[in-house]
Amino acid sequence: MTTGSTGTATTDSNGEHVTEEQVAMASVGSNWAGNLAYGARDVAAPSSVDELAELLQGAGPFRPLGTRHAFNEIADTTGTLVSTANLPEIVEIDADRRTVRVSAAIRYGDLAPRLASAGWALANLASLPHISVAGAVATGTHGSGDKVGSLASAVAGLELIDTDGRRHELRRGDPDFDGAVVSLGALGVVTEVELDIEPAFEVAQTVYEGLDWNEVLGDLDAVTSLGYSVSLFTSWRSADRIDQLWVKHRTDHEERDVPFVRATRPRHPLEGISAEHTTEQLGVAGAWFDRLPHFRLDFTPSNGEELQSEYLVPREHAAAALEAVRGLADRIAPLIHVTEIRTVAADELWLSSAYGTGAVGIHFTWRPVQPAVEAFLPTLEAALEPFGARPHWGKLFTMPGERMPQLYPRWHDFAALRGRFDPRGALRNPFLERLGL
């Protein structure tokens, strides 16, 4: 693209005329994976809460923007994307209440070392430490652990600005709190989050290889309880074998015997990929934030050449749901990099995928062949439908909005909450409309 001396674009690389509006939209960029070019006309990054409140009283539409890690249109809009990255950074530890108050845009990987240096920890982290606190919470993102909730379940309070410019402070136990945490960005722009913390701990991570599917599904609970955090990985190249089992053991907990073959070298979840950027393995203990994620903060886990979907099923249906997915192995294998299986403890957050039930997440890291993946998703979702599978809000799925009230008992309550916080619909976008919101 060429520009004139005034900075106004006149032609693109093909010599075609380009309008100023098209240039502005192109400058908005894409998501982390590069599979979605945002359709917004601009990005705003206010430097104060007052400036944010004034912005949100404008015509809109608006959508909150985090670290761009969503693979679908949840954060997109035809209007203005609103980033909180320029708001003042906050990290305030309250040792008596065992909480930390943080700015919404801070990444878990940047927060964690600061907590650790003060002797504190978060109960869990996601696979990637690169994601922002507010974005992860709003989409129900999680790590793994039978007794550990999603990242949203650690929220003790939050502050948000609605589209009338009003500030709302919500605390655990308040009437609207359970509906406002996993909010899909539909209530306002979150500016601060208060998280539960606990004394710092160490974790040792060990990888095991070549598990038998039948043995695992025969007693899935026995496998997922082998550590504080457990993940299973399979490429589906064999419907009989699970490639890897990652067990993260807290050194202050009793260690379990693991009846599988231990890897003798560090492993990456993908076969044939160097493990240099994964967190340390081979049973070497280290700080919680250096072991709970799968990948190191100083490394971008991929150059974006992937897509992701995830479905979470109630724990009591997990083995049957996995067996149903296993029946599609020959169709999944050509499309997949790897599938990860994780567990999440139950919570009471209305739009959490673990609302009211412990859940097992079946996560798909797809190859970057989006038309083929999206063509296959209805088949996968149909196979999982009998088991009450709930989609991860930030990943690719094709479930219709009519399904949501069946999957989320408080769905209509959330719709009413959205109506109260954003009565003029300034935060609506096609993603929310597809869900019936």
Structure notes:
- This protein has 13 helices and 21 strands.
- By secondary structure, the chain is α+β, with helices and mostly antiparallel strands.
- The protein folds into 3 domains: 20-83, Uridine Diphospho-n-acetylenolpyruvylglucosamine Reductase, domain 2 (2-Layer Sandwich); 91-199, Uridine Diphospho-n-acetylenolpyruvylglucosamine Reductase, domain 3, CATH 3.30.465.10; 202-405, 2-Layer Sandwich (Alpha-Beta Plaits), CATH 3.30.70.2520.
- A hairpin with a 5-residue loop joins strand 1 and strand 2.
- The protein starts with a strand and ends with a helix.
CATH topology of the largest domain: Alpha-Beta Plaits
Total strands: 21
Give a short account of the largest sheet.
9 strands, antiparallel
CATH architecture of the largest domain: 2-Layer Sandwich
* Name of the top-level CATH class of the largest domain: Alpha Beta
Determine the number of helices (DSSP H or I, runs of at least 4 residues).
13
Cα separation of the termini: 39 Å
The percentage of residues in β strands lies in 15-25%
State the main characteristics:
437 residues; alpha+beta; Uridine Diphospho-n-acetylenolpyruvylglucosamine Reductase, domain 2; Uridine Diphospho-n-acetylenolpyruvylglucosamine Reductase, domain 3; Alpha-Beta Plaits; 3 domains; nine-stranded antiparallel beta sheet; 21 strands; 22% helix; globular; disordered N terminus
Q: In short, what is this structure?
A:
22% of the residues lie in helices and 25% in strands. With 437 residues, the chain is α+β, with helices and mostly antiparallel strands.
